[in-house]
């Protein structure tokens, strides 16, 4: 749904939600605060029949949104009850890096729910606040468009999985720490991440989270990274502390870490934990190796 | 290792201290790691045993760091120690770090002890509670 103002937003979303309420669907709506309040206000007492989620929290790291949709579907009683959702991960004011991850998230959504019963998910895009590049990518990523914008790029029906992890990351700023690690250096890695997180001003909880996540990702490099370890770089940029873990291995599963691991599942938890605890996780992987970049905003 | 664990429990309950010596060059590394782990303090073993599991006033105390590469040792040592100690509680107040591999290893033991009607977990660091919540895991 492309909308330019409150009227267009409600004209697109209200019929979709009301149709779901009339059909007694399970409905999850994940919107940033302005459009969430708008829709809640327009629905009035009917809003109680809709599960609202603050997208500015859930989608702060777009890499955890798909997991939340899986949770929602798993908790619903399909096929007896139908489901539908609204998700708005891209909003004006997000950084270029975040918007790039939002675009990748939207592509991965198609892949994540390719199998299994189809269900309708509406993704609103604010044409008055978002750049044309973001809007063009949205045209490319969605099978059905509505609102005042026509398709300028063909729909990517089945995106190449390799392309979903391809691309370069922004260059590093002044690096505060560079550490080559193997399994004998994980304790040192944890200590150094903790020191830099505290120096950067992260609170104790977020410092602990970053130490855990950096260790989880570095452990993956030791196990799967090809060379028994990797390199950690730490720096500050865009109001965040950034840890970049690099190794020479390659990730072939573009949905890595985007679904809650099953209780009896072996492996697959480290990247999922990273997505849950970090403000932004960027993964790029090709024949030259893998970068997992973790960001924690310095509040 | 079993004897050391029994001795540790005895010394924790009595006015007795002891210094134990083990020759690194002749004993297997895994055994040295387990021996170091069941002592509340061990010199020259930080490369072998990143954690210690010992008795204190009827409780078990887990101290130090547990990650993927020490989770198996924790599993092994916990099996030995709780079979001789019958702990009332597991104190995690001195646990500096645990990753999800270590947490699952720990949970297997605490859940088993809980099912046998013993062993509460005390003083878990906030990150342990958060990780348990995330993974829907009960210690």
What key phrases describe this protein's structure?
A: 299 residues, alpha/beta, 5-stranded antiparallel sheet, 11 strands, globular, B: 139 residues
What can you see in these coordinates?
The complex is a heterodimer of chains A (299) and B (139). Chain A has 299 residues and is an alpha/beta fold. Chain A is 39% helix and 20% strand. Chain A contains ten helices and eleven strands. In chain A, α8 packs antiparallel against α9 (204-224). The mean pLDDT of chain A is 93. The model of chain B has no long low-confidence stretch (mean pLDDT 89). The longest helix of chain B is centred in the middle third of the chain and has 18 residues, at 68-85. In chain B, α1 crosses α3 (68-85), α2 (29-37) crosses α3 and α3 (68-85) runs parallel beside α4 (100-115). Chain B is 47% helix and 17% strand. In chain B, strands 1, 2, 3, 4 and 5 form a five-stranded mixed sheet that branches. Chain B has 139 residues and is of the alpha/beta class.
Taken in chain order, the helices and strands of chain A follow as EHEHEHHEHEEHHEHHEEHEE
Kindly report how far apart the N and C termini of chain A lie. 33 Å
Number of helices of chain A: 10
Q: What is the overall silhouette of chain A?
A: globular
Proportion of β residues of chain B?
15-25%
